[in-house]
Amino acid sequence: MPQTEQPNYFVIAAIVAAELYQAMVVARQIALTASNARSLAIRAGQGAAGFRAITDFIDDLASVTVNASKVINNQAVAVSRIASDTARAEFALVSFDNAFHKASGAPYLSSLDASYQRTQEYRDSLREKFDKQVVNLNSRLEELARELRTAMVLSAMSRVEASQAGGQFEQPLNVIAQKVADAAAEIQRRVKYSRQMFSHLGKGRAD
User: Fold this and answer.
1) 136: nearest Cα among 79, 192, 61, 205
2) What are phi and psi of 191, to 5 degrees?
3) Residue 7 confidence (pLDDT)
């Protein structure tokens, strides 16, 4: 791997961590929306009975999304730290190489061999840990993406149930359904972007 690529790993991992933090914030908004929807559906009475049932699913989805985003965000932060540590190890190895080159033939130069070997082993262990973390993160992002597809289905169902409420409650229930759809779409966008960024990491490590 070229020495100049490693800092990009740190930047990408940091960007993904930020994206997933924002996804978690939006997921919490879905939870608040579900709470508001439940209260409104109760006031709407029997006509919104189906909508009340859907709010439970929306609430569960929000909880799953918040928890998953939190875990993934923490893992992304960990990947960012590993990338930073790897960059420092790479820099140390470059410094060793420069020292060996400039001081070629100098007495006691071989005393650096053990330190150089330890740094190489440390760098290699970080790379291995990094690769495993990226694979795990991609898997979790894929799981979250599947959960979010459920949100779009729930939004469509919510619109149908809102139409059954009739009167003064139909419009506000439709607004809530749209908020769920918009929030889910926003999280999906951030998750998709995060997966794309990590796919670049995987390609970079393979080079």
Assistant:
1) 79
2) -65, -40
3) 44
Residue 205 has pLDDT above 80, yes or no: no
pTM, full prediction = 0.70
- Residue type for position 93: L
CA-derived radius of gyration, the chain: 25
Domain regions of the chain by residue span: 3-206
Contact by Cβ (8 Å): 184, 148: yes
Buried (b) or exposed (e) across 83-99, using 16+ Cβ within 10 A?
bbbbbebbebbeebeee
pLDDT value, residue 153: 79
Residue 108 phi/psi, 5-degree rounding, is 65, 10
| pLDDT more than 70, % of the chain | 91
| Residue 3 pLDDT level (bands cut at 50, 70, 90) | very low
CA distance 203 to 196: 11
Closest Cα partner for 20 from 82, 63, 55, 66? 66
The 3-state secondary structure of 34-95, one letter per residue: HHHHHHHHHHHHHHHHHHHHHHHHHHHHHHHHHHHHHHHHHHHHHHHHHHHHHHHHHHHHHH
d(CA 17, CA 11): 10
Predicted pLDDT at 95: 92
Distance CA 11, CA 45 (A): 52
